[in-house]
Specification:
By secondary structure, this protein is an alpha/beta fold. The protein has a domain of 169 residues: UDP-N-acetylmuramoyl-L-alanine:D-glutamate ligase (3-Layer(aba) Sandwich). Helix content is 40%, strand content 25%. The protein has 13 helices and 14 strands. The strands form two sheets. It has a nine-stranded mixed sheet with strand order 6-5-1-9-10-11-12-13-14, with helices on both faces. A hairpin with a 6-residue loop joins β13 and β14. α3 crosses α11, α9 crosses α10 and α11 packs antiparallel against α12.
Length: 329
């Protein structure tokens, strides 16, 4: 059986909870930031949430994208790593329930978790424990899944962790040898800046498709807007620069360098978490189903607009009639 997209990424259980500002102060977490915590700290944080209503999802940027491809009706596989704990069991089960084929490895240790605190003003604050998420090894990959997929999708975060990086490079070598397209999401401007030379080398060597938001594109090229798009398109087949509410820019270097300007959709944004991951899901779904680049971008914008209209990084229900209208325009 062939797959549309296989993703290799950090498996992080998302835990969303509404809290008051003073709750963050008591935990010594600065509002609006992301704090890395150890296993003991994340356990203490979870225990302190016992009497609160929490929402959980099998998260991580690449996992969100793979989930979105499946939710749109595509076939998808996810490879990651979780611990031998209840969070790891729940994570895999949630991915399977979403229609994603699981290639999730396990090891002794704790599953990666991200607790997202939502304060009354809707601002997000994060406590992150990576656990074993970054420890996927290359011999735990199912290379046949990669060879039998149309696209291999990875993110910048997976290229910074030494162990995960070896696995991802091994996977990309296999994909390249099999003629499988490779999609890379630059993920974070700070990450790009810290690893610019290495990221540039990897993108030039492997990437067919590159996703970046405005800040990531600037960190990667030193340019903004269309200038950044053109620079990225010089080192890959398809460059995508996401502009948030203003839409996106797409350029395919092999088609005479035409630039597609995809408008954003006006919505009441509640939570922008996961918008870029969902855009990539819509785009890759369209691409693996033979659609034109502008249509791929429109599907990406549509699903991203739906995600920002709710709390959480994933769209749990998709109106097939609505998506068919976008697809058939």
């Amino acid at each position: 059986m062939g797959y549309d997209v296989i993703g290799i990424g950090n498996a992080l259980m998302d835990i969303l909870v509404s809290v008051e500002d003073d709750k963050l102060s008591k935990m010594n977490i600065k509002k609006g930031t992301m704090k890395l915590v150890d296993a003991k700290e994340i356990d203490e944080i979870e225990k302190s949430l016992d009497k609160r209503e929490v929402k959980t999802a099998a998260g991580g940027s690449v996992a969100n994208t793979v989930y979105g491809v499946s939710a749109l009706g595509g076939s998808a596989v996810f490879a990651g790593k979780v611990g031998n704990d209840e969070h790891g069991l729940a994570y895999e089960q949630k991915m399977i329930e979403a229609g994603v084929k699981s290639r999730i490895a396990r090891k002794e240790g704790s599953t990666g978790r991200v607790v997202t605190f939502i304060t009354p003003d809707t601002e997000r604050t994060f406590a992150t424990h990576l656990g074993v998420a970054c420890e996927l090894e290359k011999d735990e990959l199912f290379i046949e899944d990669i060879r039998n997929s149309k696209v291999l999708h990875v993110g910048g975060y997976e290229l910074e962790s030494p162990v995960m990086k070896k696995a991802v490079l091994h996977a990309m070598d296999a994909a390249k040898a099999a003629g499988v397209k490779i999609s890379i999401d630059l993920a974070d401007p700070g990450l790009v800046g810290r690893n610019l030379n290495e990221m540039t080398y990897i993108v030039k060597r492997y990437a067919d498709i590159v996703f970046a938001n405005e800040e990531e594109a600037k960190a990667f090229t030193g340019k903004t807007g269309k200038e950044a798009l053109h620079r990225i398109a010089e080192v890959c087949e398809i460059a995508v620069v996401k502009l948030g509410a203003r839409g996106s820019l797409i350029k395919e270097s092999k088609e005479g360098g035409r630039v597609f300007e995809i408008p954003g959709l006006k919505v009441n944004a509640v939570d922008t978490t996961g918008a870029g991951d969902s855009y990539a899901a819509g785009f890759l779904y369209g691409l693996t189903h033979g659609m034109s680049l502008d249509r791929c971008g429109k599907i990406g914008s549509w699903i991203a607009s739906k995600v920002v209209s709710q709390i959480g990084a994933r769209l749990e229900k998709i109106d097939r009639k609505e998506i068919e209208k976008i697809i058939n325009k």
